[in-house]
Amino acid sequence: MSALDWGVFAVYFAGVIGFAYYQSRKNVGVEGFFLANRRLGWGAIGLSVMATQASAITYIGTTGQAFDDGMEFVQVYLGLPIAMVIICAVFIPFFYRSRVFTAYEYLEQRFDSRTRAMTSFLFLVSRGLASGLALYAPAIVLSVIMGWDETVTILIMGVITVGYTMMGGITAVIWTDVVQMLMMFAGIAIALVALFTALPSGVDIGDVSYIGGIHEMWSTIDLSWDPTNTYTIWSGIIGGLFLALAYFGTDQTQVQRYLTARSMKQSRLSLIFNAFLKVPMQVFILSIGVLLYVFYHFERPPLVFNGAEVAQVEASDRASEYAALEAQHVTAHAERRAATMELLDAREAGSDATALQLQISEYDDELSNLRVEARDLISEVRGASSNDVNYVFPTYLITYVPAGILGLLIAVIFAAAMSSLDSALTALSSATVLDFYGRYFKPGQPDEHYLKVSRITTLAWGAFAVVAALYAGRLGSLIEAVNQIGSLFYGSLLGVFLLAFFVKRATGTGAFYGLIAGMICVGLVSAFTDVSWLWYNVVGSAVVLVVGILLSFGGGGVRRAATDP
Amino acid sequence: MTEDQGTTAAGTEPAEDDDEGRVGIFPSWRATYIAVLVYTAALTGFLYLMTRVLDHSVR
């Protein structure tokens, strides 16, 4: 990076720290630290909700995914606006009227203490480990692409984020999220403009859409009913609806955000804001990937984008095999480039281009197959799977983007990682202090005591995330496995909340054992079927509801009205 | 709760939580929710149209 890039980078960090310090002065007590004294407006909360969901891997991973597979991933988000309506109409009134600090606290008011403890514990385990991955994933990419030391990258992101979160609590987190989200919007716009301007002269937006269309890269809607197909309109609307309900409606990381609103109306507006903006934002992010795909018709891309993995295979006794694949890649790309230029000329002249389209499709297939072969070769050499999806966009940035803009776009990747981590830290701290420490270990202490403990737990969770990130390389498969287990009980957690809201006669016993049954069933579906993960949340919720209702109506247990906090 | 928000008689709900009031350009929350659902349907329709119109594959 140039001095200008480092300057942009320094301004970003100084701005975030200064802004966090300024905002942190407004916090008073535990309610201030965790809920900003319930005084924020919908705009800041809405942007923070969005920033929390958009991690660094969302930003660099989805662009790489679109580069390989097109825009179909956007279907996952189609259920999100519907989920927002349900959360606004049903979930928020319950949370708001019960004046809770955590989502799980509501479950104690509605059911019993063990249901609260169990759900909060599941949240702590999954979110704690996910925070480590949220730091590790962008750090490893940046270390490979930029040549930065992985440990230093993790420490810079971790220490700064933990510092301002400890200092300013949720107020600092939300306002820095606002800045970071605005940076991400700017980053998306700049990346799109930079890609367009990097295309050869004479290639316009019509040509871009045409070239992308030859390989069906703009294909977003798949109407097939196959449940093993991950991305279809049905898995997106139904599975995506349950996923969004679970994430935005029951995960403390998000619930905490809209509990900071000065009124229920402001809470709801923050989610309606996301309902309108989230899908278009994803379309723009994925479009970057498709534009990269078109861009690399004119510039030769690396055969494999992860330079560290390529170095490994080149240093092995199978280097000649890789070199042969690379030579074929160079030839196929040059031929596709020539055919593409010819196609654009033919299109401009109005002549029939079907033969050229077929030819380009064949080159596309050949280049895709070469990438698959190269990754298989790398996997064999490394003894571990190879996936370079997260390296596609950063490789483009470092190779083609001019000084200044590069610093800004790398800062955006940092912003995306930090805005997810800071929200997770406040949520983890609130669940630890309020659902466990203050509930079981030290109840009835003065506010100052809990505020002090809240800062300490924020620091502790931050340290845990940093250490998990530092060791993630060695424990990669284990951490990934635990993270996947998290997705197994997400739907079941949602089922407990649905039981609480919609089944007035539901009991704590029904909820508790329903939750366990739901997790077991989702585990079985995951282990013994090929059903897409997007359906897990539907299965988990349904099982919890059925078992919960059966146990509630058939057995004993204390019943409390859903509207009686 | 801070002093500038006001409360209902029960003292548990902020005064701004009137479900019957206007929501920005929408006359009520019900209208807002319907607008979101219509918007989602229109967006899905647009994406489907994009899928069809921009499909230039020849195989």
Explain how this protein is built.
- The complex is a heterodimer of chains A (565) and B (59).
- Chain A has helices spanning 3-24, 29-35, 42-53, 56-69, 80-97, 103-110, 113-146, 150-198, 205-214, 233-250, 252-259, 264-295, 307-314, 319-349, 354-382, 392-400, 405-441, 447-502, 508-528, 536-554.
- In chain A, helix 10 (233-250) packs across helix 11 (252-259) and helix 10 (233-250) packs across helix 20.
- By secondary structure, chain A is mainly α.
- Chain B starts with 28 loop residues before the first helix and ends in a 6-residue tail after the last helix.
- The longest helix of chain B has 25 residues, at 29-53.
- With 59 residues, chain B is mainly α.
Topology diagram in text:
The complex is a heterodimer of chains A (565) and B (59).
Chain A: H1 3-24, H2 29-35, H3 42-53, H4 56-69, H5 80-97, H6 103-110, H7 113-146, H8 150-198, H9 205-214, H10 233-250, H11 252-259, H12 264-295, H13 307-314, H14 319-349, H15 354-382, H16 392-400, H17 405-441, H18 447-502, H19 508-528, H20 536-554
Helix pairs in contact in A: 1-8, 1-17, 2-8, 3-8, 3-11, 3-12, 3-17, 4-12, 4-17, 5-10, 5-12, 6-7, 7-8, 7-17, 7-18, 8-12, 8-17, 8-18, 10-11, 10-18, 10-20, 11-17, 13-15, 14-15, 17-18, 18-19, 18-20, 19-20
Chain B: H1 29-53
Q: Note poorly predicted spans of chain A.
A: none
Structural class designation of chain B:
mainly alpha
What is the element string of chain A, with H for helices and E for strands?
HHHHHHHHHHHHHHHHHHHH
Helix segment tally of chain B: 1
State the separation between the terminal residues of chain B, measured CA to CA: 63 Å
**Helix amount of chain A:** over 70%
Q: Give the terminus-to-terminus CA distance of chain A.
A: 55 Å
Write down the overall mean pLDDT of chain B. Answer: 74
**Radius of gyration of chain A, in angstroms, nearest whole number:** 25 Å
Largest sheet of chain A: none
Structural Rg of chain B: 21 Å
The number of distinct helices of chain A, counting runs of at least 4 residues, comes to: 20
Helix content of chain B: 40-55%
State which percent range the strand residues of chain A make up: under 5%
- Given as residue ranges, the uncertain stretches of chain B (5+ residues, pLDDT < 50) are 1-15
